[in-house]
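agent: user wants the structure for Alpha/beta hydrolase from Duganella aceris. delegating to structure tool.
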Amino acid sequence: MHGGPGLGPVFERARFPDASQVHWWQQPLAKPCAARPYLDLQDAALAELRRVSEERGAPVTVMASSFGAHLAVHLARRAPELIENIVLLAPTFNPEQAALRLARRAFRVHIDHEHAGKLAAALAAYDDDPGRPRFWDVFGALSLLPDVTSLYFGPRGAQAAVSFLELIQQPGAFDGPTSVATSDDFSASDHTPVQSLFTGPVSVLFGAYDPMIDSEQDSAVWKVIFPQAVFSRVETGHFPLLELTLEECLNPA
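agent: tool returned. relaying tokens verbatim.
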């Protein structure tokens, strides 16, 4: 399950065209005027898990990236018997704070850019009055800076960054309205970490160059949810699956 919300699996499919054993799930778009788009996404993920596990005739591996980790938590809570093991790749427990970390990183990198002052002002306004309206102001100012998506990747991920920038412009790669609606609905829910009913193997990979995650802070939260989790630090940015091999993600050293 890829990140986002609003992202499609075009990046993973392009990266691993021969991975026929992997089901790259195309998450549904938020319905117009949906009352609870995040809850709709949870329901869709659960239905997809049940369909895939029934087709396989056995529990499956759930691999989730970034925001997708919250869908993995939901599946583990609702249908732990259908899951063989869980792999979380750069899981963002608090997506809003993760995006703000990215914005602050982008400001430091592009401090001399003509629009850097707009981002600084938006960040200061958010700090004075946190909330979704000010958050989206930050996001809008962030979009004025160049090469922001390149910050997702580590020093060895230059080619992955180029590919990401090319693919994200394709139809189906990203849906803005779905991202906004689902993110806002998610932020309105309670996300106090609670220990999961799933007791099988869990591995968590954090990128050493991830601009969105504080691995020390976030690992403590994920440890509450999955006490059995094994944590690894890999030489990537925020998308380990786009910089490492599939085998390295599923079986980190």
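agent: one observation worth passing along. The first strand starts at residue 60 and ends at 65.
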